[in-house]
Amino acid sequence: MMRSLQALARLAALLLVGLMPVVAPAQAPAPSGFVSPLEPVDISSPRATFTSVTALGRELDAAFASYLEAPSVAGQRRIRQVLARADRLFDLSATPAALRGEAGTAAFGTLKDILMRLPAIDPASLPGDPATAPEAVRLPGTDIAIARVAEGPDRGSFQFSAATVDRLPGFHALVIDLPILNPAPYESWRAEQIRFAGPLVPGALVQAMPAPLEAVVLGTPAWKLLAAVLVLGAATWLGVLWASFALRRGRRAGPIPAQAWRLSVPLVAACLALVARAYLLGQVNLTGLAFHIVQALTLAVVVLAAALAARLLITLIGELVIATRGIFETSYDVHLLRLVCRVSGLAAAGAVVVYGANSLGVPLLGLVAGVGVGGLALALAAQSTVENLFGGVSIFADRPFRVGDYIIFAGGQGYVESIGPRSTRIRAEDGMQITVPNADLAKMQVTNKTCRDATLFEHVVRFTYEATPEQLAEFARRTLAALAAHPLDGAAPVPPRVRIVGLGDFSIDVQVHAELLARGEDDFYRLQELLLLEIVAIAGSVGLAFAFPTQTLQVARASAAPALA
Prior knowledge:
This protein is α+β, with helices and mostly antiparallel strands. Helix content is 55%, strand content 11%.
């Protein structure tokens, strides 16, 4: 295990060193012909949009040629800046947010290849006045449409329509084998995009790739797909290794350190997924379907890890509050706080999952609409769960009992062990665990024996009829003194008393009554035992004998029968 951890540390150090130029690149002077990435792309009219395509195309050709001469992080960043500005040329509103960058890059490269093989288009042939321009304009001799944006931040501007973006790959397949009519540095810019790799991928290794590994699989070269499998496999192995180490350490630690170790598992998983994603998409430069798969897979891991981390973090915060004894003793109930943390953690995890699903292309509004349509069915299915949840909340709010109290209810009696979101667990005196739904328990009549102010001590002592009035009076006097020696409830409506309450068939009945200040069951049974022993001793000291059920049988002798005549 120690060797594995050492290897993990070395790999992490190498990874951080390798990614340092990406995370914190050195400041470099702007290259010649630099155009600020903050300069807006002119898409005010169909003519302006088409002119921006040709201008950004020339800018991209220059940035790519400069990068090939001297590959660097700054050169790669320059290419990405041009492509990021080119994204505004296309209507990508129907594309999931996580995939818009790659979709815009692919659309721009595909459009460049198409325009290279079409007769030159005069920008003057396109409307230049946005006020008089129609809602959609097609490039001469094509089905490529530039349409007015109806909504969103670019409302009123002109972009290549969403339908055109979807059809560009088909147009590209139709014209890619045609001769180039408008000379360009490359025969196919889209092919150059697919072959491109960042500066952190050794160029000599890329140049030495055998032909079979250059074949395009899932929209990317086979060697890039192999690199993705290796990187994701390594990230998964590191995540499993860390999870095993953290959970093992957590089992040996206290509650709060154990929770912190558990929290580290999703955090490390999210970090590994982000690093793998940054390297595969930013340096290996996956494209096509392979990009979509890795993007969706890594972001799904990040979203799920973030959801689990949010839940564990809220639980950890709750445990820290509980551990702060001053706050807990003065204003918090530990089990109520844990219940709130559980519910809040689930709510936070759900919010993270919904947000992540939205970024992956699952529309948030669609989810909300689905919940609205199926709301009735969901409410009916979850009726008992919601009822039990509110039953638990009402128990905490009303406080008829707490964890550790001894209660009597319709289904039995015992000590309360835990109050959860759905049910309350009670430990009976015979050791059996009773689980009662909170909704049912909230409706029951519950007797809390632990919460009483005082405990009633009441016994009837039976003496034989040989007892004299003097002995009984002395017994009463000494017994009252013994009761007074123990803590009594001074506010009790009936003071301690020792009185003759009946003359039974075989005994004189004397009642001993007092209310003891003993709140817990153990304390009461201890005091009761002491008092009973004292009563036995007092009775013996005054000469009284305890009666037990007896029966006297009297047999009369029959008189002699008269003689018969």
